[in-house]
Design goal:
Elements (H helix, E strand, L loop, with lengths): L2 H8 L9 H12 L4 H5 L5 E4 L16 E15 L2 E11 L2 E7 L3 H7 L5 E6 L2 E3 L2 E5 L2 E4 H6 L5 E4 L4 H5 L4 H15 L9 H7 L4 H9 L4 H33 L10 H10 L6 H14 L6 E6 L5 H14 L3 E5 L3 H14 L7 E4 L5 H12 L5 E4 L13 E7 L6 H9 L6 E6 L5 H7 L4 E5 L10 E6 L3 H13 L3 E5 L7 H20 L5 E4 L5 H12 L5 E4 L12 E6 L7 H8 L10 E6 L5 H12 L3 H12 L24 H17 L9 H11 L10
Parallel strand pairs: 4-7, 10-15, 10-16, 11-13, 11-14, 12-13, 14-15, 17-22, 18-20, 18-21, 19-20, 21-22
Antiparallel strand pairs: 1-9, 2-3, 2-5, 3-4, 5-8, 6-7
Helix pairs in contact: 9-10, 10-24, 11-13, 12-13, 22-23
The chain binds adenosine-5'-diphosphate (ADP) and magnesium ion.
Adenosine-5'-diphosphate binds next to helix 13.
């Protein structure tokens, strides 16, 4: 492409037809439209269907806008007290007459409308005083209409008060785009290969760009949008997949080819239960990964209670058997301590040294620990984010397990690689039930394993919604469960903004429970973020040993806490929690063989959205359904670390609604890379050009030129 061609797209908006400096200013500041290229990629957000024409007699059947061809009768002024209050005109075709009415803009009407002339009117009919009229119709002479680009599906562009005031109406934008397309379209280049276009049945980029502004009909619009969405997904997936290929080429993984003594001893002598089929499958997938010589980057997705910890433990034993250390990182101190306890207990009869490192490991103890780590005397290190601090140096870290931290991005993962100067295998475990399509984009460079089976004998948790007013009967229910030997969590919301009031609620709630249940001979414990780590640990330990019957807490127990004897989860002010959180909290019960219950307590007044959340919880235990509902309610913007995944750069595609297109695009990208991993073949030149540019930070759409 030569410079002249490129210049078309770089033309500042003020020089485009019908724009000028004033409108250009508004377009720049409000919409980020600076030049012709930007304008071409400023897509309509809806369309008015003007493909259908009505006769006057059909107006009565219309329930929306109508478009009618007819002739204009004489214009009448209706006066009151000497002032014109409205203009009316008959408009007629062979089937009848309808009245057109104006309540303002009289001079324009009088100056521009010609009695006897043929017009196309467009507007929403009103029924008043026994007859139909069309107030403030859009009018075009039939002749104008026939030559107008705006006579099929009319684009409606995003607008706003400021744009409107500056005269940037949807019509102004549409006309500017129309005239720009005439010169620019022939210069628009294809971004996909002929192969991809053919096999996916896609429109060319030129066709799509025209049709997305001025579709002939709804069908053409769908195909145009499909093409543009496909392209966005295609390049996003291409980048993710290429990243993976490059990483695999660059990083040699350790080869864990022995299933040795420790794995076998544990598996055959110390495992407290039989693995589920899904756990076995995932362990196999991991074993295959770590034996290839490539660095493993695997996400293990499994709903709450599916048994991810055991999968982690077995993987860590593999690392140990091959002469490496392993670490396991948890998002909270409570969870880190629990993992530490669980692993220590499970491995107590074996020659494995497990250690714990958190923010509260200090002083001499910490120094000794770091020393033992460096000299390789610690086999498994469990901890919080403290694990990725500079000072933590492993002798030979072979595997890092990251538990319940879907926000742990590529960058942070690579910090772990940096730790030892080489790249350990990485296992990310999450209960966040990410629909596959999302997983593909968020974790596009990870392989995904799914534990889609719960251990045998689990019964689905029964969930109920109760109002404040039913508190006493809820207490009664708690009593009856405790009498059967079970335990109960009572969780209070806690957010920073209302921290003080929230703590007060929790403490008040604790006092009430304490008094009520002590009278029945039961103990109530409490755990929250303001307590010292050792006190938290003690409170949890009491509960775990069954010495307390009820544990009142904040969401510090949200993730991972595993106490199978607890069968009742009472969530106070449940309307204040998000769906993902509610699901995680509910996952704290239903972990043993007993029937478990989740009780969502709310005030009487609920917003529509809170009600929808509560109802979703009551209706389903399925994490995937909950995640989908969550996205419907909240949008996926700030969900699950999506921001860092490039998803927020999507301009037209919608991750949630366009899952099928995403899958098609990902497959296509895989096919291209499979036969041409470095995109060197001439046929893939257009793809290569865009890919290189995107890596350099060019926006995808700028490839109109
Ligand atoms: P999560 O996937 O939520 O991290 P955990 O690893 O904490 O789940 O496991 C939940 C509970 O199920 C634990 O008490 C664990 O010991 C138990 N468990 C895990 N796997 C099995 C299994 N195959 N059979 C029976 N119980 C299991
Ligand atoms: Mg867990």
């Amino acid at each position: 492409m030569d410079a002249a061609d490129r210049n078309v797209f770089l033309t500042p908006v003020e020089y485009l037809k019908g724009i000028g400096p004033r409108r250009a200013e508004a377009l720049k500041s409000e919409m980020g439209v600076f030049n012709a290229g930007d304008l071409l990629n400023f897509f309509p957000y809806r369309y008015i269907d003007k493909t259908r024409y009505y006769t006057v007699s059909q107006i009565r059947q219309a329930d929306a806008d109508v478009q009618v061809v007819g002739r204009l009768g004489p214009v009448n002024e209706v006066k009151q007290g000497g002032r014109t209050v409205r203009l009316t005109a008959e408009f007629y075709d062979a089937t009848g007459r309808v009245e057109l009415v104006w309540f303002k803009g009289f001079p324009w009407v009088k100056k521009n409308l010609v009695t006897g002339q043929q017009y196309v009117v467009f507007g929403r009919p009103a029924f008043y005083a026994g007859r139909y009229s069309i107030p403030h119709p859009e009018m075009e002479t039939l002749e104008q209409h026939r030559s107008s680009p705006l006579s099929a599906m009319v684009p409606v562009y995003p607008s706003g008060e400021k744009l409107h005031k500056s005269g940037v109406t949807s019509r102004v934008v549409a006309l500017a785009v129309a005239s720009l397309l005439e010169v620019a379209l022939p210069r628009v280049e294809e971004t996909l290969s002929g192969d991809v276009l053919r096999s996916e049945g896609l429109m060319s980029r030129r066709e799509a760009l025209r049709a997305i502004h001025f579709p002939k009909d709804a069908d053409e619009l769908t195909r145009a949008r499909y093409r543009m969405k496909f392209e966005e997904f295609f390049f996003m997936q291409l980048a993710l997949l290429r990243r993976k290929i490059i990483r695999q080429g660059k990083l040699t993984g350790y080869v864990f080819d022995k299933v040795g003594e420790r794995f076998n001893t544990f598996y055959h002598h110390h495992m407290p239960f039989e693995l589920t089929g899904a756990q076995k499958r995932v362990v196999r997938e991991i074993r295959r990964d770590v034996s290839t010589g490539y660095q493993m980057n695997r996400l293990v997705q499994g709903d709450v209670g599916s048994g991810k910890t055991m999968v982690a433990l077995l993987s860590m034993l593999l690392a140990l058997d091959n002469g490496y250390q392993a670490c396991m990182m948890a998002p909270t101190e409570i969870l880190a301590m629990q993992h530490y306890r669980t692993l220590s207990r499970l491995l107590s009869d074996m020659q494995v040294r497990v250690a714990l490192l958190t923010g509260s490991t200090r002083g001499a103890q910490r120094r000794q620990l770091l020393e033992d780590l460096r000299t390789g005397q610690v086999d498994i290190l469990v901890g919080t984010h403290a694990l990725i601090e500079e000072t933590v140096v492993f002798a030979r870290l072979g595997l890092a397990v990251i538990d319940e931290q879907h926000r742990f991005g590529v960058e942070q993962r690579s910090k772990l690689w940096g730790k030892s100067g080489y790249a350990p295998h990485i296992l990310v475990m999450t209960a966040t039930p990410i629909p596959r399509t999302l997983a593909m984009s968020v974790y596009g460079d990870l392989d995904v394993s799914v534990i889609d089976e719960l251990p045998a004998g689990r019964r689905p948790v029964r969930t109920y919604h109760r109002y404040e007013s039913a508190r006493l009967s809820v207490f009664g229910f708690m009593l009856s469960e405790i009498a059967k030997g079970r335990q109960v969590y009572v969780v209070y919301p806690l957010i920073e903004e209302s921290e003080k009031a929230d703590y007060k609620n929790l403490i008040d709630g604790y006092d009430v429970l304490e008094e009520y249940f002590r009278a029945h001979g039961y103990q109530v414990g409490v755990v929250h973020g303001r307590m010292k780590p050792e006190d938290k640990e003690a409170a949890l330990a009491h509960f775990q040993r069954g010495e307390t019957h009820i544990l009142v807490s904040t969401t510090v127990i949200e993730v991972g806490v595993d106490i199978p004897n607890a069968t009742v989860m009472v969530i106070e002010s449940a309307e204040r929690f998000g769906l993902a959180q509610l699901h995680q909290l509910r996952g704290r019960v239903g972990r043993g063989g007993e029937q478990s219950y989740c009780i969502l307590m709310t005030g009487n007044k609920l917003s529509a959205e809170s009600r929808a959340r509560i109802e979703t919880m009551v209706q389903t235990n399925d994490g995937f359904k909950i995640a989908e509902a969550d996205m419907r309610l909240r949008g996926y913007g700030d969900l699950m670390g999506l921001r860092q995944s490039g998803v927020s750069n999507l301009k037209i595609a919608d991750l949630f609604k366009d899952g099928a297109i995403l899958e098609a695009a990902r497959k296509a990208a895989q096919n291209v890379l499979f036969s041409d991993p470095d995109l060197l073949s001439p046929a893939n030149a257009p793809i290569r050009a865009v890919y290189d540019g995107v890596l350099k930070g060019r926006a995808l759409w700028s490839y109109i030129s």
